[in-house]
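Give me structure tokens for this 220-residue protein.
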Amino acid sequence: MPDITSYAPSERTVPTRSRERASYDRDLVHAILDEGYVCHLGFVRDGAPVVLPTLYGRVGDRLYVHGSTGSRPLRMAGQADPGLAVCLTVTHVDGLVLARSAFHHSINYRSVVVHGIAHEVVDEEERRTALDALVDHVVPGRSHDSRRANTKELAATAVIRLDLEEVSAKVRTGGPNDEPEDAALPHWTGVVPLTRGYGAPVPAADLDPAITLPDYLTTL
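Here you go.
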């Protein structure tokens, strides 16, 4: 029986440094992906590497990315056979690690790296599912509280799918790793935590005053 709790390591997902920070736990990978908003999508165009920041959404063990039908990577995913080779990453910075030595300064972070072949989504039902997931990934519940894309908008939108198969997480936690001989140096050392926060929602100027703030925003 396959292990459904973790992803299988591969040559590309085993780091060469700090291997103890790597994880293939499925729940951890999903949690890191679900907390992020922006991924970086890397691919090769005309023999040169390209990395683009973009929104994404997850449905089970699949990631979806969308954009204009004129977008180069989305067109390439549809034209290439068997698809477009990509590398997708998501990173959260949780703290600034300040050591006594400049060499040992670091950050606490959680990251996911996905390798694979991206395919254009052509099935209309899957495209709608993917677009709903992209909206709900940013604000859970929003897809049911907005107008879905019409035929014209769907025709102008391309969606690519990347299966979570060759994937790993990497996490650093804790304080500085100073050398023992630096312990007596007169420099402040420790961690500056970073947290994400939300401001109060600002209504659009033309919003009907009778429309109240939805529950999914008050609990965001």
